[in-house]
Every structure is written in structure tokens, then in C-alpha cells.
Amino acid sequence: MPNDVIEVQPQRTMTAVDIRAQVNLIQEVMKAVMIRDTHYGIVPGCPKPSLWKPGAEKLLVTFRIAPMEPKIEDLSTPELVRYRVTRGGQSILTGAFVGAGIGECSSDEMKYKWRKPVCDAEYDAMPENHRRLKYLADGKTWKQVKTEPADVANTILKMADKRALVSLALISTAASDIFTQDIEDLPEGVANESEVSAPVEPPKPKAHSNGEVISDAQAKRFYAKGKGAGKTDEEMKSYLKDVVGVDSSKMIPKSVYDSVCAWADEKSL
Questions:
Q1: Per-position pLDDT tens, the chain of length 269
Q2: Structure pTM?
Q3: Of 85, 108, 109, 144, which is most buried with the most CB atoms under 10 A?
Q4: SS3 63
């Protein structure tokens, strides 16, 4: 990968050669540095990879763009938590403003509004308008109860900031022709039918003693890395379940250990 980053002087317009070189650099970074399911994801039915926050950070570093302090707008009401975050970016080399991305998140989004009940008794004790049956693609149902908005307020703010950062990376590096919006930001039902957003259990690798899963020491190392990067237990458990497809760090396949450690090393917001 070339050591020189394309830096266009403010007084001149980018040429076709400049633009082609920028696209080539993004593609080269993607192939040489980014890891699938850590920096970006492939969604069935989508023509372009989905850019994730760690991948957005890699693009910003590549083009020497420093994210500015987030501008946070609290749009909350007594019934819900809602934040809008704007992330500007400036060139590390010249200090010039290069663009801004906007991200918004609300506790009214389905994945934050509803949760699995602790037990059937909790579900039964809920008022009718605070519980529901979630229908899955195979016709089965899940019991769900409403989440208290205050319980997810920090998550809502972090997600809005993450969306703004990904937007900044796509806009300021003109990478939208290579990457698409993070698929997890799309409302339910917008994703391709083959990628059902309902909480269907992902396939889980089976544990064997023949070296297919990592050792206890490696599992502890993964958690130590995550903690050192500021990640919570909930974030790490969600990553293992949603991305890796396992319920425990002891079930991480050896084949993806380097990838999950790379994710654990990424600084949390």
C-alpha cells in the first residue's frame, strides 16, 4: 500500500487521475487491512459491503482525517430517548474542514424498544400495551416486553455517534460507491428478505477437543483486550452472539480468533 496519502491542494480541483487514485487506495486498504465481519460485512442481496465503525475509523486514518468533537442534540421526550449527533472532520495535514456526517438514534427503534423478558412471569405481569409476540420468518414467535428508555440511553447516544462517524467516513472519502450504509442501521423489513432482522438464533460452532475452538487462556485474553479498550460485558457478549455466532468466548473458533481480537482492540466510544 502506498505510504503517501492523496492530499489535494485547496486551490485546485481534483482531476480524474486524483479521483481514480483515491478509489484505488480505498480498495487497496479494504483488501490489505480490513477484516470481514470486523471492519465491514457482506449482507445477502446487497451489492456493496456494509461499512462498520472500525472500518470507518480505518478510512479516516488512511486519509488523515481527524473527527472533530461531536455536536450532540438531545431530542428526547418524556416517552423516549433520542439523540442526533453531527461529526465534522478536518485534514490532519492542513486543518481544512473536509465534511460532516449526521447520525440519529431513538429508543423507539424496534431493536431498542423491545427486549426478551427475564421470565414468563415478567411477561404475564406486563400491561397489554407493554408486551407483544414477535413473529419470526419461520412462523414461530418470541415473547417481548417494552424496554425502559432510560435503560438504553447510553446505548442510544453511542449508536447515534457511531452512525455519524460512519457517515463522515463515507462522505469525506467518497467511499459510498464501494461501501453502503451499515445494515444494522436500517429499519426492520428494509433489509433483503434473506437477512431477517428478527432475533433468529445464529448457527453456533460445536466445541470439540481437536483444536477447533480457542483455549481458556485465549478466551481470557479476548476479554482483557475488550476491557482495556473500554468495552462493556454487554458489548462483548452482543458481538460474540451477533457477529461470531457463539454464546461464550470459550466457543470462539480458532479460525476467527485474530479477527475477534482485532475487534476487541478497537477503542470503544
A1: 444 444 444 445 777 777 788 888 888 888 888 988 888 887 766 778 889 999 999 999 999 999 999 999 999 999 999 999 999 999 999 999 999 999 999 999 998 999 999 999 999 999 999 999 998 888 889 999 999 999 999 999 999 999 999 999 999 998 887 886 554 555 454 444 333 333 333 344 444 334 578 888 888 888 888 888 888 887 888 778 777 778 888 888 887 888 788 778 776 54
A2: 0.64
A3: 85
A4: coil
